[in-house]
Structures are given as C-alpha cells and as structure tokens.
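Anyone have tokens for Amino-acid ABC transporter-binding protein YhdW? Sequence:
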Amino acid sequence: MKALKHVAAGTALFLSSWAATAGVTFDSVKNKGFVQCGVSTGVAGFSVNDSKGGWIGLDVDLCRALAITMFGDPAKSKIMAVSAVQRFTALQSGEVDVLPRNTTLSLTRDTTLGLIGVGVNYYDSQGIMVNKSLNVKSAKELDGATVCVQPGTTTELNLADWFRSQNIVFKPVVVERLDEIIRAFAVGRCDAFTGDKSQLAAARSNLENPGQYDILPENFSKEPLGPMVRQGDEQWFNVVRWTMFAMLEAEEYGITSKNVDEMLKSTNPNVQRLLGVTPGMGKNLGVDDKWAYNIIKHIGNYGESFEKNLGPSSPLKLSRGLNASYRDGGLMYGWPVR
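Reply: yep, here.
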C-alpha cells in the first residue's frame, strides 16, 4: 500500500510538471488569433508569391491547414519569409509559431536548438545541377568546379562531405539568398548549383531555357523535410503533427475536397472519426471535432496539395516517388486517428 502511494504521488507530480509546460504556444496562438508560419524566401512548389502577391506552395498549404485546425479559417495564418540563416532563430525567439519551411530534420537539430521536428511532409535528396555546356554526366566529373551553395544548411555540409569522400576538389561559392544563387548560377558565376532536388527542379523551371540544364544523377544525402516547433509544448506539437496526418489519412481513405461532404455518410469507422461524425478526436487535441473535415474541405488531402503544387499538373511536374502513399509504394503513412 505504501508503495502504491509513492507511485500515485510520483504520477501526480509528473502530470503536474507536464501541465506546467504544455500549451504555451497553443495558448499564445489562440490568444492572438492567428498562426505565424516561417517559410522559405521563395522555393517554387513549397512557398512562393503568386501573381496576386499571395503565397502558394506545399508548406503554405500546411500553414493554412494549421489555421483551420485552430480556428476553422485558413485566412487566420500569417506567412513570414525567413532565410536559411534566420529560420531557427525566428522559431527560437517566438517570432514564428512553426517552421513549415522546407527544413531537413536531423538528430543535431532535434538535440541542440531547443526545437524538434514534427514529421516529414516531403522526402527529398540533395543533388547538383549544371549547364549542359559543361558536358558532364556525373558529379564525379566536377573536379575543380565552383559550386553555388547556401550557408547555414545541411546542404553545405553534405556537399563538402560528398566531394571529400570522392577525393574531388571543389570551390564553394556561398550565397545566402536562394534567388541570388539562381542568378549567380544563370550568369555563370558558378559551374554548378547544389540543393534539394525538388529545389533544383523548381529553380530550373524558372530559368530562361530550362532544357539547357541537367540535374545530375547522384544523391548526396537523404533529406526528410518537415515542420519544426519549439520543444516543451506537447499540445502544439500534437496539433502540427496531427494536422499533417489528417491530410495523409484523408488521401488513404479517398476523401477529397470534392467528395468530403458525401464521405460524411461513410460507414467506415476510421472515416467517421477523422471527419468528426464520431466525436472526440478534436476534443483530445483541444480543437473542434470538425478540424480534419474543415482542412479537407478548404485545402484538400495531401495528394491534392502535392498535385497542385509539385505534381504533373504544376510547373515542376514532379512524380510522387517516395512521397506517394505507402499503398502505392511510397513512404507517406498517416497514423490512425482513433
């Protein structure tokens, strides 16, 4: 009996400690009435200004989905462009609530910055792009080349690691802003340009003669890209995580922005929980039970967001590849909403 009392006391102390640290960002977002998101300064397919001056992209869709989860309104999201160097400071300082910016998740970033990765919303790899005039078919042929790269990124570290492992000499040309890198590469200031392959494809689509450039076959790294939040707020972490998973689950069950109202009649218990027909899932997150329904209604499922921003019907024309649902041979796998 005495032992049980000690266990109970310890459990109460743990729960009290957890409650004291949970909900800080969640409450802050609720009180100010919007979600502040940090995105890249302009990567087509992920976050870029459209012709009307608004923001579009996979990461922007995630930000708006978070606003829907919290407030039921995609307009209650604010987009802030942050450079690779600025991004972690912006999140650490509270300038942004979440960093959906295409950021590689890694052990060092999870353990040294006071931040934590939530999950992956795009599986990528780092590559290198060259002008066809160089007449090279492999990165192994770039001995002595100049390579444009952004500072303060895993890209910069991976580039050095790969060339060192191949005993190849290169000269980095370090440029902070992505748009400036692309201009430097286009005018020949560097022989090659390195970045995530999705980023290279986006840059190539905006160059004057896209067919003049090759993305070489080598993969320098694994690049699991996803949002980050500050450590110490499990409630906000859960909101971001399950917003992502809801979009993946919707795709798996065939729920789209066009049929979501019809799917409310589904007898599938998984669909009923996801769409709030069976109550409780939203309450567990501290939000409305219709949170996932509203995301799908306004934004769509993950596949719809991918297709619109990155897929064959977009300027980038990227295949799903690793970002396909696990049912189609990809890695995308939403956890069960139950």
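The first strand starts at residue 35 and ends at 39.
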